[in-house]
Predict the structure of Periodic tryptophan protein 1 homolog.
Amino acid sequence: MAEEGPPEASIDFVPALCFVPRGVAKDRPDKIVLTQAELARIIGDTQQELDEESDDEAEEGDGDAADGDDMDVDDHVDANSENRNPRDEFQFQEYDNEENANVTSLANIVDAGEQIPDEDEDSEAEDEVIKPSDNLILVGHVQDDAASMEVWVFNQEEEALYTHHDFLLPSFPLCIEWMNHDAGSDKTGNMCAIGCMDPIITIWDLDIQDSIEPTFKLGSKGSRKQNKEQYGHKDAVLDLSWNTNFEHILASGSVDQTVILWDMDEGQPHTTITAFGEKVQSLEFHPQEAQSILTGCADGYVRLFDCRDSDAVNSSSIQWKVDGEVEKVLWHPTQNDYFIVGTNDGSLHYADKRSPDQVLWSLKAHNEEISGVCFNSQMPNLLTSISTEGTLKVWNFNGTEAKHVYEHEFNMGRLQCMRQCPEDPYTLAFGGEKPPRCAIFNIKNSVAVRRTFGLADAE
């Protein structure tokens, strides 16, 4: 009788990913070897956290039962939003059993046949070294009830893509943000912040290969048993934005209808913005104006806040109202007065921060919700968008309209996320729910894109 293999995962997808710029990672990340005492401490701390959560949940459950409430997991995640999950596009209940596959694809960069790993020991040793010409790609991966972040190495010149290492996460990842600020150090770092279904934001050092716990955390659930006070978010963290001008500041938006500006050097909230009527699904600091942050909310409002006065920030926003829920907001990288808005009905709206409450143009771009948008720093009138219907589209736009140029179907199910290579804005990475679940694609491979934007033919 043949041996049965491990059961197939019923949930297996990539909800978030992020590029790391070239030349910032250590060529050989540190490998940490824990002593027995250190390992015992980590296990003990983790068990204590689980016990405290279990005790608190039991107490809350008693209270809910007394009130006659019957709330399931999805209701708890989004109790303030008409029982809608903060990431409905994940639709856990609709996943079919699928054959497990590596979270990788070079798409149009190399052929599938060239992706077979080289088992030669010298090759493996070489792969351990991160070169100055390598990008890292941080891939959040959910598989059944397990969550991890896989660190991939991508070398565009060598047409190489492979997993370097990974580590387990405490909760399902919803957003990943790279930053070079290493709190408590006078040197630049190689760090990332991860927002999860859990309200605690974890900060990881990417130059440490075998991490089993984050460098530090932002937020605390509190504990009645330990008399610990809760601070930070109270529900899932949906988006993160690092302030590249004030590098110790990180912003987070949450299902709890707040935005928090964190002082990472202090490990505490600096400013909390509460001027929202629904969950905050997207946010981004302005590229040049360090005090300005743009937010997108499920109540259909885009808000621009001036954060210089923390006492007045909640009453000082400029607003734009669009139909539907705002899923994505993004500043133009070179024309900094302008931004794009993507909504849950598949629409794109282009606006000018100097013209409150009006948009320059609107477009029904997709049939389902917008799950990713990217401008192009080298081609100011080029815009890319994806939606949960699984399609990438390229647009040629100006201040009055956007014209369709090209589209590509990835056959990866619902596309959950899209990010852009920092050094080559034509190279995009995508996360989806069907094999290969993560793909890299260069839009210059399209003849229509090259002709429309006057680009040289691909070699």
